[in-house]
């Protein structure tokens, strides 16, 4: 069996792998373009771009200009497919979305919030809208609303399971019962739930499985469940093209399985990260002093937050791990070396082909 291509609207990727968007600044043009050049779909994260110090006076403008610059840079490096990832809780998300559309991005990935108004913000029907959901129920809620209000549907759906890194669409209680939320259950449920929408709109809405997917065997298993492709983020951190500091990558290489923990984010969602000095310090103090300069998140309750997540993620990206939050997926501890994106993609493709051949 040949490796299937991943088609989202009129976009066709030779390899059914989407590189997940990682903020702050972990997935920028360098990483996204390398993945796209290798046949997958590369994703720029729109979160936390630009000069933070200067942004205190002009946060929206600086964020907008920085995103446009990353998109243009990626376009100069590849003719492959580039997507941009957005969080619904960003205070300037509408401005960033419109910036991406003006720059010609044809695939928008939207997480951390139900994107009920997304088709109104992104009116161009040629742009593929791809929500991140954690259940078939959430997907149906979004698509019923889009159909009723805008006569539009999704280009694809990313189903992110509970083993993902960063912010998670599951409650802390649900994360204690991972067996109840496996891809084996969630993927077929979503595939089935999307069929009525596919029939009414006359085109496929591919399911892209995400969260804890590590190797080619995992990809083959997701395809066997009905997914059209996968999204992987953690695997791409330890690549040469990832812009995160070497110390950030080394934290992944040094992590044990026991180091990977669930934390409470100021965003109001649980998140998965590597337990380091920063997290240990938070356990022993009430909260850090926070001087909120950006108001970058609509849901962040500064008075109650134990730390500024924007600053903590920026610190980690820059290599100040002792004062930084290092998000990761559940399988980050399995990474043992830094490679090029080309090498990683070739390894994943080889493993996927072997798994598909064995299944025949």
Description of the structure:
With 360 residues, the chain is α/β, with parallel strands linked by helices. The protein has two domains: 6-243 and 337-359, Aldolase class I (TIM Barrel, Alpha-Beta Barrel); 246-323, no CATH class. It is 39% helix and 16% strand. It contains twelve helices and 13 strands. The strands form three sheets. The protein has an eight-stranded parallel beta sheet. α1 (29-37) packs parallel to α2 (52-77). It starts with 5 loop residues before the first strand and ends with a helix. The model has no long low-confidence stretch (mean pLDDT 92).
Biggest sheet: strands, sense, closure?
8 strands, parallel
What name does the CATH topology of the largest domain carry?
A: TIM Barrel
Structural class call reads: alpha/beta
- CATH class of the largest domain reads Alpha Beta
Give me the strand/helix succession.
Answer: EEEHEHEHEHEHEEHHEHEHEEHHH
The beta-strand count equals 13
Mean pLDDT: 92
Question: Largest sheet, order of strands side by side?
Answer: 3-11-10-8-7-6-5-4
Task: Determine the number of helices (DSSP H or I, runs of at least 4 residues).
Answer: 12
Number of domains: 2
Question: What is the alpha-carbon Rg in Å?
Answer: 19 Å
The CATH superfamily of the largest domain is identified as Aldolase class I
């Amino acid at each position: 069996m040949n490796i299937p291509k991943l088609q989202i609207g009129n976009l066709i990727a030779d390899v059914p792998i989407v590189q997940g968007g990682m903020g702050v600044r972990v997935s920028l043009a360098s990483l996204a373009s390398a993945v796209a050049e290798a046949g997958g779909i590369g994703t720029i994260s729109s979160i936390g771009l630009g000069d933070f110090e200067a942004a205190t006076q002009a946060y929206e403008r600086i964020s907008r200009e920085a995103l446009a610059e990353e998109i243009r840079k990626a376009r100069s490096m590849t003719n492959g497919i580039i997507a941009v990832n957005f969080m619904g809780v960003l205070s300037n998300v509408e401005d960033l979305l419109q910036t991406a559309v003006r720059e010609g991005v044809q695939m928008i990935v939207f997480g951390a919030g139900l994107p009920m108004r997304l088709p109104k913000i992104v009116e161009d029907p040629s742009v593929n809208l791809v929500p991140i959901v954690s259940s078939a129920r959430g997907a149906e809620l979004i698509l019923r609303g889009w159909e009723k209000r805008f006569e539009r549907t999704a280009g694809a759906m990313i189903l992110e399971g509970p083993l993902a890194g960063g912010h998670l669409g599951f409650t802390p209680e649900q994360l204690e019962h991972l067996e109840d939320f496996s891809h084996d259950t969630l993927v077929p449920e979503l595939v089935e739930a999307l069929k009525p929408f596919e029939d009414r709109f006359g085109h496929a809405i591919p399911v892209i499985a995400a969260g804890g997917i590590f190797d080619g065997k995992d990809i083959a298993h997701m395809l066997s469940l009905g997914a059209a492709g996968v999204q992987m983020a953690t695997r791409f951190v330890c690549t040469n093209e990832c812009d995160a500091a070497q110390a950030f990558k080394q934290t992944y290489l040094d992590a044990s399985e026991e180091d990977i923990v669930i934390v409470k984010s100021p965003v109001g969602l649980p998140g998965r990260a590597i337990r380091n000095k920063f997290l240990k310090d938070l356990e022993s103090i009430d909260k850090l002093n926070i001087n909120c300069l950006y108001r970058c998140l609509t849901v962040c309750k500064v008075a109650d937050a134990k730390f500024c997540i924007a600053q903590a993620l920026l610190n980690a990206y820059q290599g100040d791990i002792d004062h930084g939050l290092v998000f990761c997926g559940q399988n980050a501890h399995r990474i043992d070396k830094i490679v090029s994106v080309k090498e990683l993609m070739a390894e994943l493709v080889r493993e996927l082909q072997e798994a598909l051949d064995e299944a025949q």
